[in-house]
Structures are given as structure tokens and as C-alpha cells.
Design brief:
Its cofactor is Mg(2+). It comes from Inquilinus limosus. Monomer. One of its GO terms (molecular function) is acireductone synthase activity. By secondary structure, the chain is of the alpha/beta class. It folds into 2 domains: about 5-20 and about 105-235, 3-Layer(aba) Sandwich (Rossmann fold); about 25-100, Transcription Termination Factor Rho, Rna-binding Domain, Chain A, Domain 1. Helices cover about 45% and strands about 15% of the residues. The chain has helices at about 25-45, 50-65, 70-80, 85-100, 110-120, 135-140, 165-175, 190-200, and strands at about 5, 10, 10-15, 125-130, 155, 185, 200-205, 220, 230-235. The chain has a 6-stranded parallel β-sheet, with helices on both faces. The chain has a 3-stranded antiparallel β-sheet with strand order 2-1-9, with no helix packed on it. It is globular. The termini are close together. The mean pLDDT is about 95.
Length: about 240
């Protein structure tokens, strides 16, 4: 199956999660409160867990001596900071929550329809999200649309680089064996739009909130995935 974005041939699609295929409110209203309550309990119950030990060690290295690492982790989450040791523990406690059935990963209906169509057409799809790869996999395994793990090839998080840096997208392209100008990236974040475009990717910004104005006048904007039909053709 050949994909064409406007007049440009596309070999694969790279997707953001939060704000693009899933609601930002799901993270802020469901996942973050759960992690805030569970991280102190999980750390106390599993002091010998290797991931817990690694997260606490990395936190102490960042905060310095005399600081409560658990309090620092909670403060980072309250400030919505994507700090590696916090992401490690979030992944662990969210895994527990999914297994307990406390919540399901949220996928927009229009996004799921597009993903399903691309999968049936054999279009390679990959994920680049600020959440850890572990958290991404748990999210898709336990989504409100069932187990979506087979839909995606590779998962990338900020271990490969910041999402607002062009070099991160070049690394992803190289890892996938693709040239940047044959990749279509979908995200809601204008800084990610700029970085990906600088790296040579084709980008569509997803702005679901009509009160949000685009930062780049020439950026391709959609309000939902249904509007991709006029931009992305299969043939």
C-alpha cells in the first residue's frame, strides 16, 4: 500500500499519544492522581525492587543529599516534569493499575478508526511519546479499544532524545531505516511540530481544542483524524 501526504510519498507514520490519539485529560485526571497515591506505597512495599532502587538512586543524584526522594518524585509529577526516575516508577504503578482494572487507556474514536484502517492497509506505525516505553506498551495493551500492541512496530521515549529536538527525529528515522522526508509525524505539540519539521519529517498538528491557535502559520492542522482524508491518500 502506497501512502501519499499531499504530493509526498510516505513510508511510515510516527505518532504521539497524549493529546493526539488520547485525551490529555486522561493523563492528568486518571494516571497522575493514581501514581501520586501509589508511588509512596509501592516504594515502601518494594524497597529491593531493582527499578525502585535505580529510581531512588537517580532521584538522589538529582536532588542532592538530605532530600526526601519520594517527595521529590511527587513534586516532579505535580509540575508535569518528564524526569527519567519518575517515569520508571510511574510505569510500575500504572502497570499495577491496569492489572487491577482500575482504568483503561483512552483512545479517541476517530484515532482508532484511522489506526485500524492503516493497520489493515499494512502501513507501518510507530510511537514517540514522553512516557516510558513500558508505560506506552501497558497503555496500548489495556486500552478502551482492546489490546492495540500489534498495531505498532517500535516505541520510542525520551531516552532517544527530547521530543522538542530535531536530532531525536533524525535518530528515530535512522533506527527505522527510513529517510526523514518519507515519515509523517502526528502530534499536538507545536514545539514538536517545529523540531520534526527541522529534521525533515512531514508533520500534521492535531489541535482538538478550537480555542488553541497554531504557532506556525503554514503548519498542517487537523481537529481530528477524520480530517486526514483530504491530506493523506492511499493507493
Amino acid at each position: 500500500m502506497t501512502l501519499t501526504f499531499q504530493t509526498h510519498p510516505i513510508d511510515l507514520i510516527l505518532l504521539d499519544i497524549e493529546g493526539t490519539i488520547s485525551s490529555q485529560r486522561y493523563v492528568l485526571d486518571v494516571l497522575y492522581p493514581f501514581a501520586r497515591d501509589r508511588i509512596p506505597v509501592f516504594v515502601a512495599r518494594h524497597p529491593d525492587h531493582p527499578v525502585v532502587q535505580r529510581a531512588l538512586k537517580e532521584t538522589a543524584e538529582r536532588t542532592g543529599p538530605g532530600q526526601d526522594p519520594v517527595a521529590a518524585l511527587i513534586a516532579w509529577q505535580d509540575a508535569d516534569q518528564k524526569v527519567p526516575p519518575l517515569k520508571l516508577l510511574q510505569g510500575l504503578v500504572w502497570e499495577e493499575g491496569y492489572k487491577e482494572g482500575a482504568f483503561k487507556g483512552h483512545i479517541y474514536d476517530d484515532a482508532h478508526a484511522a489506526l485500524e484502517g492503516w493497520r489493515k492497509a499494512g502501513v507501518p506505525m510507530h510511537i514517540f511519546s514522553s512516557g516510558s516505553v513500558k508505560a506506552q506498551v501497558e497503555f496500548f495493551q489495556n486500552s478502551n479499544r482492546g489490546d492495540l500492541r500489534p498495531y505498532f512496530g517500535r516505541h520510542y521515549d525520551t531516552d532517544i532524545g527530547a521530543k522538542v529536538e530535531a536530532g531525536s527525529y533524525r535518530k528515530i528515522a535512522a533506527d527505522l531505516g527510513a529517510t526523514p522526508d518519507r515519515i509523517l509525524f502526528l502530534t499536538d505539540n507545536p514545539r514538536e511540530v517545529a523540531a520534526a519539521r527541522q529534521a525533515g519529517l512531514h508533520v500534521v498538528q492535531v489541535i482538538r481544542d478550537p480555542s488553541v491557535k497554531p504557532n506556525e502559520a503554514d503548519a498542517q492542522i487537523i481537529a481530528d483524524f477524520d480530517q486526514l482524508h483530504s491530506l493523506l491518500r492511499q493507493g
